[in-house]
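Section 5.1 Outputs to date
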Amino acid sequence: MRRLVVFAVALALIVLTGAAWVIHALRTPTTTSSFAAVLPHDELPRAPEGVRIRVQVLNTTGRHGLARRATRLLRDQGFDVVDMGNATPALDTTVVLDRTGHADWAAAVAKVMKPATSRTERDSSRYLDVTVLLGRAWSPPPEPFNP
């Protein structure tokens, strides 16, 4: 009989604790976008309206998935990422290369990918406007949790 009473009290405490947790979770406001919480899209430069800026993203760090995360960020800002992959040698700082003589486009991409530097290295053999070489100093914004 005593075991049954102890079991009933323990079960009641578990149920009450769970109910309190659910009520607290429902009352706590959540953000809808983790990108918005970290760096609002209004503060990041966007690709100019009506202009297609073709971007290549190359990961030099060896950290898995970094080029994909950078691609997602740049596409959210209106840039057309047409290629992504890995490259060597490893860089410490992200470098944005202007391939077509539009230094302002490379500068806009560098502001999105900060900390980054930009420079002109024209290459007419590529069907690209900008190349991003991701360095170790760049860390992507946190991704939203989608269970």
